[in-house]
């Protein structure tokens, strides 16, 4: 039991580090006006406001990673032991979390341009995969009761599984909608993050 708890703690610590790095990379991607192009206060102010898609993308992605981290923490509140399957599922999820800064930079560069649909489609597509990763992680951890804490009931297992499965169709919808309306696609993603932030309280302890 002591070894399994220690392994779980290492997984959580490693995961926390990946989440922290992903959030840090978001800030590093924020555009900085080049000094040679700035001739005065008015020009700098205009350059700042012209970069609003980058700030929007930063805030949305920061909130998404924050909510993913909270969800990850909630899942591991229920996981008592680990296995190679859980570690691989968790690793796949972290791979996708680490990739979030890339589509964020695409939105920052191309949102409100003729290429915004493709940029947002890549963004929404990544979150489809992230949803799959969370489903895989919880399925791998919950398919055998021995990996979970003794107080985790079958009802809790089913509820969490249902919550994550319900998120898949809306993410697919946001991906399809991205090709027609980039703004609406991002709005769907935002509503989903609100959904995750609200429902997590039902099974986080």
From TrEMBL:
Its main location: membrane. It is found in: Membrane. The keyword Cell division does not apply. GO terms for cellular component: membrane. Keywords: Ion channel, Ion transport, Membrane, Potassium, Potassium channel, Potassium transport, Transmembrane, Transmembrane helix, Transport. One of its GO terms (molecular function) is potassium channel activity. InterPro entries: TMEM175-like. It catalyses: K(+)(in) = K(+)(out). The chain crosses the membrane at residues 52-70, 82-100, 120-139, 171-196. It is a multi-pass membrane protein. PANTHER family: ENDOSOMAL/LYSOSOMAL POTASSIUM CHANNEL TMEM175, ENDOSOMAL_LYSOSOMAL PROTON CHANNEL TMEM175. Belongs to the TMEM175 family. This is TMEM175 family protein. The lineage of its organism: Bacteria, Pseudomonadati, Bacteroidota, Chitinophagia, Chitinophagales.
